[in-house]
Amino acid sequence: MPFLPSKKKKRRSRLAVTTLTLTSMMDMFTIILLFLLKSYSAEGDILTADPKLKLPVSTSKEPSKMKLIIQITNEEIMVDGIKVTEIAKNMDDGEFLIKPLFDTLNKNRIKTEFISKNNPSIKFKGEVLIQGNREIPFSLLEKVMYTSGQAGYSSISLAVISRE
């Protein structure tokens, strides 16, 4: 026959009140919070590509910086998500300069230079990031790079998908 607890022990177990200690739970939440803050990357900005774009793959490890973004899809050229021109219009002519793109980049440069006169912390650096679909012809990419240089954007970066 198994051992039966005495009446005193039975009564004590029913009357015992357990208290919840929050100290260990607060320690746990603090550790989780610190882990999440540490793992959050404040180094690079998130670069989102248009769903129409299939960026080329590269072994580059350098993180991208936020700059003026030129997106080149198979149908159109966009600056910061705003459609500037269609590609079919600019591939047929023999011109190396894409006039609508030049006008948009020039307006943006003038606006940034005006802001930098009033706010010395913002400087015009002439940096642009090109997100080009991997199927676009090199001649189009060359035209966009030439137009960017003519508009004062001489520091050109290309967005790629990093191969790990």
Layout of helices and strands:
Elements: H1 7-15, H2 22-39, E1 57-58, E2 68-72, E3 76-79, E4 82-86, H3 87-92, H4 99-118, E5 127-132, H5 138-150, E6 155-158, E7 161-162
Parallel strand pairs: 1-7, 2-5, 5-6
Antiparallel strand pairs: 2-3, 3-4
Helix pairs in contact: 4-5
Explain the overall architecture.
Strand 5, helix 5 (138-150) and strand 6 (155-158) form a beta-alpha-beta unit. The chain is elongated and about 100 Å long. The protein has helices at residues 7-15, 22-39, 87-92, 99-118, 138-150, and strands at 57-58, 68-72, 76-79, 82-86, 127-132, 155-158, 161-162. Helix 4 packs parallel to helix 5 (138-150). It is built from 5 helices and 7 strands, in the order ααββββααβαββ. The longest helix is centred in the middle third of the chain and has 20 residues, at 99-118. The chain is α/β, with parallel strands linked by helices and 164 residues long. The chain folds into 2 domains: 7-39, no CATH class; 57-162, no CATH class.
Write a brief structural summary.
This protein is an alpha/beta fold and 164 residues long.
Largest sheet: 5 strands, mixed
- Structural class comes to alpha/beta
Percent range for β-strand residues: 15-25%
* Average pLDDT figure: 77
* Total number of domains: 2
Regarding quaternary structure, how should these chains be classified?
Answer: single chain
Strand order of the largest sheet: 4-3-2-5-6
Estimated helix fraction: 40-55%
Distance between the termini: 67 Å
Number of strands: 7
Number of helices: 5
What would the principal axes of the Cα set say about the shape?
elongated
